[in-house]
Write a structure and sequence with these properties.
152 residues, alpha+beta, Killer Toxin P4, Chain A, five-stranded antiparallel sheet, globular, repeat, membrane
């Protein structure tokens, strides 16, 4: 009988802890906003896991430059506001399409996601200058762009 009582107490404790962490009860404590995702406000982990560069290159004045600029700006501004922190886009310029996808760890706040994406794009641009495709995987986010449609 003592084990049952102990198990019941532990179960009640876990329910209380989850309620506090996810802000259930409308009072707000612990973040999450009631959407079932715990949002942690802190500096994102921007340690680099992997950077890959496509072997193909583009040159200055290539129409791909405009398309790439468009998709990189679009993913950086749109991804953080998505509840899933996952966003795909394509450039609207038919002369040279660019495709991109960005993801952040869903528990990141929108501002932390944006910070992480700025780091990912920066390291990708420094490492893969003038490449028609690249991928930067950081601990809390990733960015990929290509000159062709992709899924991953």
């Amino acid at each position: 009988m003592g084990d049952r009582r102990k198990a019941g107490f532990i179960g009640l404790y876990l329910i209380l802890l989850i309620t506090i962490l996810y802000g259930g009860g409308g009072g707000g404590g612990g973040g999450g906003g009631g959407d079932g995702i715990l949002v942690v406000e802190s500096a994102p982990n921007t340690n680099i896991t992997q950077v890959l560069c496509n072997s193909g290159v583009y040159t200055r004045g290539d129409p791909f430059t405009q398309s790439l600029d468009y998709v990189l700006k679009d993913i950086q501004s749109s991804t953080p506001s998505r509840p899933s922190r996952d966003y795909k886009t394509i450039s609207p310029f038919p002369n040279a399409f660019a495709y991109a996808r960005a993801t952040c760890t869903p528990s990141l706040s929108p501002s932390d996601c944006a910070t992480c994406l700025v780091s990912a794009v920066s390291v990708m641009q420094q490492t893969c200058t003038n490449r028609i495709g690249a991928r930067a995987v950081l601990y809390d986010c990733s960015v990929r762009y290509e000159q062709y449609p992709f899924s991953d």
